[in-house]
UniProtKB/TrEMBL annotation:
InterPro entries per the UniProt record, alphabetical: Prefoldin, Prefoldin_subunit_alpha, RNA_pol_II_subunit5-mediator
Keyword hit for Magnesium: no
Region Disordered: start-end pairs: 186-246
Protein name: Putative rna polymerase ii subunit 5-mediating protein
One cellular component (GO) term of this entry: nucleus
Length: 246
């Protein structure tokens, strides 16, 4: 890890030097183009032999060639070339800013490593075993339990619809309807909890914990008992229950 970090820091320094040089070159070109903006010719002294000079002029000084990369060039005027230089200088500045942030990040990691924040001698490494076969088996069992809960919930909803269609003509039907509503709510809460638990276990911890499995089995057995009670238990009279409560 330290070797990779050192290589990244050296690469960052190399890239920073390259883009700083490129930015400086474009700034110099932009400054030189200022002299030729709007001029079609320029007066110069032309050398004649080794010692002689004569007055002359350079024509078409407002026309320049701009490199597009890959050996391609385009002819343009000095003003347009300045705009291109400004845009390339801005791109270089953005890249240098990103490289600076990257450099600070690497330096921060190096400082933490030097202080042995993550590399203390008395620290213990935490290893969590992972078995793909057990993981697949657990997910299959979990999917079956969810399917079973949804099936039971569908049955409860169907019975509720039937009870609504028949009407609550008797006290027994009234209590049965209330029990079915309560059971429906419990099934829906259980499905929500199973969904949340499966997401948390898949992200944060191993789903192979026997305690979690036993807890789910306990919840399943409890709901099954409640469902059987709703099916079979005798109903007390409404008046007798109200008199007892009073």
């Amino acid at each position: 890890v330290e070797q990779k970090r050192l290589e990244a820091i050296l690469k960052n320094k190399s890239n920073t030097a390259f883009w700083e040089e490129k930015k400086k070159a474009h700034e110099e070109v932009k400054k030189n183009l200022e002299h030729y903006v709007g001029k079609l010719q320029e007066q110069v002294m032309v050398p004649i032999g080794k010692r002689g000079l004569i007055k002359g002029r350079i024509i078409n000084t407002n026309q320049v060639f701009v490199s597009l990369g890959g050996g391609w060039f385009v002819k343009t005027c000095s003003a347009e070339a300045q705009i291109i230089c400004t845009r390339r200088i801005s791109e270089c500045s953005d890249i240098l800013e990103k490289l600076e942030k990257e450099r600070k990040l690497f330096e921060g990691w190096t400082a933490l490593s030097d202080k042995q924040v993550f590399g203390m001698d008395n620290a213990k490494e935490i290893i969590e075993p992972y078995d793909e076969k057990k993981e697949a088996s657990w997910r299959k069992q979990h999917a079956e339990k969810v399917k079973e809960h949804r099936k039971k919930l569908a049955e409860v909803r169907k019975e509720l619809e039937d009870s609504r269609g028949k009407g609550k003509s008797s006290e027994e039907e009234l209590w049965r309807h209330l029990d079915l509503l309560e059971l429906q709510e419990e099934f829906e809460d259980e499905l929500d909890q199973m969904g949340e638990n499966s997401e948390n276990e898949s992200e944060n911890s191993s789903p192979l914990d026997s305690d979690d499995d036993s807890e789910e089995e306990k919840d399943d057995s409890t709901l099954q008992e409640r469902y059987k009670i709703v099916e079979n238990k005798p109903k007390a009279g409404l008046q007798s229950i109200l008199s007892k409560n009073q």
